[in-house]
Structures are given as structure tokens and as C-alpha cells.
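Researcher: Here's the sequence for the chain we discussed earlier.
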Amino acid sequence: MRKKKTPWRALLRGLLLPALCVLVLVGFSTALDSLNSGHETEDRRQLEEALRRGCVACYATEGVYPPTLEYLKERYGVQVDENRYTVFYDVFADNLMPDITVLVNET
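Model: Thanks. This is the structure I predict for it:
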């Protein structure tokens, strides 16, 4: 004998498949956002490191830290994407490492 399909089974199957698809899409979207955030953090960290290495190179060759961020860019080839980042470069004295802060601009 054949079992008769109940309307509840059809309804459950009709709701379960779309709900499962939505859950998969939400999970995928969350994973992509997390990956993007990780890349943004890593890019910011690498820019900060490049700025610090440029400062150390300047100190090693000239005996003083760069007086401005522009000086560092011109003489030591450090590139900053000013559309993506804001760099705060605060110099205390010629013989002290400048305080360097890199912030990501809101888009």
C-alpha cells in the first residue's frame, strides 16, 4: 500500500528548502565580511610597519628621524593611499621615534 502524502510534509519541505538556502547565504555573507575585515586590518598593520621601517632607515642614514611624513614619502619611497588611510605622524624630537598612527577612512 502507498502512504498518502500529508499536506504538512509538503508544507515542511516547501519551507525547509528556502530557509536552508537563506541560512547558507547568510553564513557565506558573514564569512566574506569577516575575511574583508581581516584584510583591512592586515593592510593597515603593513602600512604602519612600512612607515616605521622608513623612519628607522632615515635614522640609520641621517642620524635623525624624518621631520615630516612628506619627507619620509619623498626620500624613502613610502607610499600612503590617502583615500583609504589617514596617517597621524607626531614628532617629539629628532632623536626619538615619531608616534605613528594609521586609521582606516570610512567609505
